[in-house]
Amino acid sequence: MNNQALSPPAALAGAAVLKLKAGDTVFQAGDACDNFLFVLSGSVRVDMISLSGKSVLLYRIGPGQSCVMTTSCLMSGRDYSAEATAETDCVACALSASLFQEKLSHSAYFRELV
After folding, report:
1. Helices marked H in the chain — which ranges?
2. Which tens digit of pLDDT belongs to each residue from 24-59?
C-alpha cells in the first residue's frame, strides 16, 4: 500500500486517521454529527431506511471524497438521517466539528475541498 496515498490532504491537518473494517458502522440515523469525514481508501455506503423498512442506497463514498450528508449535518447542526457502513476496509480522516467550522471560516482551499 502506498503511504503517500493514505496521507491526508494538507487542508485536513489536525484530523484523526480512522481505520475501519468492512461492515463497521460509521454512523446511524439519529447520531450527532461530530466529525467531517474524508475517505482516503476503501468504500463507504450511505443508506436510508424507507418507511416500509427497506434499505435504500443513497450514495457511496470512495477515495478522495467526503460524505455529503456529514457536510450537510455539520453546516445545519442536525443529526444524521441515514446510516453509513464501510463496504470494504477503509482509511478515513475525521476532522472534529469545531475544527471543521474553524477551517471553513479561514481557508478558501478547505471551503473548495468541502
Report:
1. 68-76, 97-106, 108-113
2. 999 999 999 999 999 999 999 999 988 898 989 999
Considering only residues 13 and 91, tell me which one the structure prediction assigns the higher pLDDT. Answer: 91
Res 1 pLDDT > 70: no
Contact between residue 107 and residue 36 where contact means Cβ atoms under 8 Å apart = no
CB–CB of 91/17 below 8 Å? yes
* Alpha carbon distance 111, 79 (integer Å): 21
What does the buried/exposed string (b/e) look like for 44-69 if buried means 16 or more CB atoms within 10 Å of the residue's CB?
Answer: bbbbeeeeeeeeeeeeebeeeebbeb
Closest alpha carbon to 91 in 21, 36, 12: 21
Please give the average per-residue pLDDT across 64-70, as a whole number: 92
Displacement of CA 66 from its chain's centroid (Å)? 5
Contact status, residue 25 vs residue 84, Cβ threshold 8 Å: yes
Residue 36 identity: F
